[in-house]
User: Fold this.
Amino acid sequence: MEAGATAERKVYTVAAFNRRLAGYVGRVRDVWVEGEVSDLRRSPAWGTVFVTLKDVRTGTCLPATMLRRRFDLIAPPLGEGERVQVNGGLQLYEARGELGFRIATLERVGEGDHAIALARLRRALEAEGLFAPGRKRRLPRFPRAVGLLTGVDAAARGDVLAAIATRFPAVRLVVAETRVQGPAAPLAIVSALARLSEHDGVDVVILARGGGSFEDLLPFSDERVVRAVAACRVPVVSAVGHEQDEPLCDLAADVRAPTPTAAARLVVPDLDELRAALERSRQRLGAGSERVLERDRGRLARSRERLTSAPLLLLERRRAALDRSGVRLQALSPLATLARGYAIVREHGDVLRDAGRVTPGARVDVQLARGSLGARVDEVRP
Assistant:
């Protein structure tokens, strides 16, 4: 009986079963489904966009796909949290045995519940000035310690550790692992952020979480978390989700980084770049000192030349002045007058300027240019 039962079985291989199941599934066509967009994944290199449609009341999910060329025509671009109605059919991915919904047409119904709440909260916090550029603080150039808030056993921790160890291994890293997903995550994040900011030596905090669905990142848009980031004692760098994600903590943080690795590059300098800059500074200082030394050496040489030549120049100037004085003295000397044929007449050593002061018979001395004469006055003519 067992042999007979075995002989009557219809046994399929997995591939044959999936192929036959795909035929049944493929009959479900032209169906409209409404849900909220979640876990949106797309890439310019992919021909298909992957998305999850979620019933926010029950949490039920339906994986779906859409051709990227059709998805790119949606304007404005579709974002997570929006509520949509899609038309399409079921299909089975035979290689993996996974069931999905193939979207042919997509229409917006209105903003999703989460999107509406986030937009309202964003407007309120923005009106308070929590996102104002003027309140953003500059990151410290050389932090004593870097605080890292991340999930338990998160890959972001390894990325930050590797980047900091490569760039600036001297800095200390203080890690706070906590819940980053689920209803309890907001309070856990706020508590961990407070502990990090008060830790001795921590000058900047990195808030890091890898990518996830729209719902996974909701704790980082919680009002308590956003206010804690804005009120943090030290600057906060937000590296939450992928580059296209924008949780509200990104807007409240002092700096937003696209990835945890990029955040690590922002908070610590590059040791190799610092060494290169120091070497360039050393070279500039050496060249500057050499220029100053050369300039002072030239100034000293010129001063020495001036000190050497100055006495000779002064002597020449004094000699010339003396010569000029000699010429003037010679021109004014009585001897020069005598040389022109004049004579000086003295009586008893006094120069006679008035003929009426002598009487006939008086003796006088007559000085000539060469020699002198003794004479007697024979006649006085007034």
